[in-house]
TrEMBL record:
<dbReference type="InterPro" id="IPR016169">
    <property type="entry name" value="FAD-bd_PCMH_sub2"/>
</dbReference>
<dbReference type="InterPro" id="IPR006094">
    <property type="entry name" value="Oxid_FAD_bind_N"/>
</dbReference>
<dbReference type="GO" id="GO:0071949">
    <property type="term" value="F:FAD binding"/>
</dbReference>
<keyword id="KW-0560">Oxidoreductase</keyword>
<dbReference type="InterPro" id="IPR050416">
    <property type="entry name" value="FAD-linked_Oxidoreductase"/>
</dbReference>
<dbReference type="InterPro" id="IPR012951">
    <property type="entry name" value="BBE"/>
</dbReference>
<dbReference type="Pfam" id="PF08031">
    <property type="entry name" value="BBE"/>
</dbReference>
<dbReference type="InterPro" id="IPR006093">
    <property type="entry name" value="Oxy_OxRdtase_FAD_BS"/>
</dbReference>
<dbReference type="Pfam" id="PF01565">
    <property type="entry name" value="FAD_binding_4"/>
</dbReference>
<keyword id="KW-0274">FAD</keyword>
<protein>
    <submittedName>
        <fullName>Glucooligosaccharide oxidase</fullName>
    </submittedName>
</protein>
<feature type="domain" description="FAD-binding PCMH-type">
    <location>
        <begin position="11"/>
        <end position="186"/>
    </location>
</feature>
<comment type="similarity">
    <text>Belongs to the oxygen-dependent FAD-linked oxidoreductase family.</text>
</comment>
<dbReference type="InterPro" id="IPR036318">
    <property type="entry name" value="FAD-bd_PCMH-like_sf"/>
</dbReference>
<dbReference type="GO" id="GO:0016491">
    <property type="term" value="F:oxidoreductase activity"/>
</dbReference>
<keyword id="KW-0285">Flavoprotein</keyword>
<dbReference type="InterPro" id="IPR016166">
    <property type="entry name" value="FAD-bd_PCMH"/>
</dbReference>
């Protein structure tokens, strides 16, 4: 129950206690007990916080963790097609239950072990997001335990300010015990294409430039979810198209992607796509406890990486310390589309202007060396230098926790940008004693 997700010694968490309640009433009782005895509180759903915030985070021993693993209620209203889902349900279970309940779906990430509770309160981005938006954009109502122990409902019409805070910064405002979520009919067909480019045969900088031009096009077909991953040996473009192969070919998208060394194509129905992704992600570092270090950044339309910036980036990657690429990944993912249709003030997800995120990971045992961290910091500086003027305020998605951004009010604008002052006011209203606290949670106004 209390094992950290990131095992690096600098971020390992040691909570005071971990409790697994079975009902919202029991969650409320735990919160009340913690407050009366001077403890902070954090919820744990799937337990995938990069800095172990779901266990209180590093350097803290006075956090009571509310593990939501027993809260797995699930039902679907066949008239509205709204799904009511417990906050402890994992994404892999959510998707299959929705499939079995009438062929329904909503946008979210693809790691099956991620918990809905954290995912739907921080953003929830994935390959479906360009088509449908973020996970939290589908949340229409929540049941939530707040700092004084009350169990409340929150929506756009009931406790609306609390609802605003929960949809993007949920860990700072309460513990959601169940979600009411708007769903879509499943896409009938899904085709996944993997383009492989070996360094000996391709100019990786040119490959990236072609992908960049596609990712930055605001008019590109929203049925496409795509990312590019660069390792020390090859580059891989993943293109997931929510339609048939014939529709993909007719869309003009294949002509805009570079010619690879190898191309694989998997055409599947929706359920087969979910199983395929679940099996793939189970092997990915994001679903395995390990010691890792991570950096990330969001890019607006005006922050398009110039050809010169791309050349510098690829040169930097190809000149990494010896052995570095055995345990590292550089990932760039396309955003925009339906995500950016939502007004920035509608939720506390602060990235409606982003068209791309980069994230990189390095995994070491037992800990990440300072040399490797310094290398990643150098790469991150290249990315920051490439941004347009004026430099953006909101730098990255709060799901990509980065302790280098600082703590408290210093880190807030980096995740929530211009929304942070509003979030602090909401925090002051609903949690003035800062009960729901981690190193980078929203702070009440002094």
């Amino acid at each position: 129950w209390s094992k950290s997700y990131n095992l690096d010694k600098l971020v390992v968490a040691r909570p005071a206690a971990v409790v697994r309640p079975k009902t919202a009433r029991e969650v409320a009782d735990v919160v009340t007990f913690a407050v009366e005895n001077g403890y902070k509180v954090q919820a744990k759903s799937g337990g995938h916080s990069y800095a172990n915030f779901c266990l209180g985070g590093p350097g803290t021993t006075n956090t009571v963790v509310v593990d939501l693993a027993e809260l797995k209620k699930f039902s679907v209203d066949k008239e509205t097609w709204y799904a009511t889902i417990g906050a402890g349900t994992l994404l892999g279970d959510v998707t299959m239950k929705l499939h079995d309940a009438g062929g329904r779906a909503f946008a979210h990430g693809v790691c099956p072990g991620v918990g809905l509770g954290g995912h739907a309160t921080i953003g929830g981005i994935g390959p479906m997001s360009r088509m449908w938006g973020t996970c939290l954009d589908h949340v229409v109502e929540v049941e939530v335990v707040v700092a004084d122990g009350r169990i409340l409902r929150a929506s756009e019409t009931q406790n609306a300010d609390l609802f605003f805070g929960i949809r993007g910064a949920g860990a700072s405002f309460g513990i959601v015990t169940e979600f009411v979520i708007r769903t879509h009919p499943e896409p009938g067909n899904v085709v996944q294409y993997t383009y492989t480019f070996s360094f000996g045969e391709h100019d990786v900088a040119q490959v990236f430039k072609q992908w960049r031009d596609l990712a930055y096009d605001p008019n590109v077909d929203r049925r496409l979810g795509t990312l590019i991953t660069i390792t020390g040996h090859a580059a891989f473009i993943e293109a997931i198209f929510y339609g048939t192969d014939e529709e993909f070919q007719a869309s003009g998208l294949p002509q805009r992607l570079p010619t690879p060394s190898d191309l694989t194509c998997d055409a599947k129905g929706w359920a087969g796509h979910l199983v395929y992704f679940g099996e793939s992600e189970a092997l990915h570092a994001s679903n395995i406890r390990s010691a890792f270090y991570h950096k990330s950044l969001g890019f607006r339309q005006q922050d398009i990486l110039s050809d010169g910036a791309v050349d510098k980036m690829v040169h930097y990657i190809l000149n990494a310390p010896k052995g570095f690429h055995e345990v590292s990944l550089f990932i760039f993912s396309a955003q925009g589309g339906a995500i950016n249709d939502v007004p920035v003030e509608a939720t506390s997800y602060g990235h409606r202007d982003k068209v791309m995120f980069y994230e990189n990971y390095i995994i070491n045992t037992p800990n990440v060396s300072q040399e490797n961290k310094d290398y990643f910091i150098g790469f991150h500086k290249l990315m920051l230098d490439a941004l347009a003027e004026p430099k953006l305020i909101s730098t990255t998605y709060a799901g990509y926790v980065d302790l280098d951004l600082g703590t408290g009010v210093k880190s807030g604008p980096a995740y929530w940008g211009e929304l942070y002052p509003r979030l602090r006011k909401v925090k002051t209203t609903w949690d003035p004693r800062d009960v729901f606290h981690n190193l980078q949670s929203v702070r009440p106004v002094d």
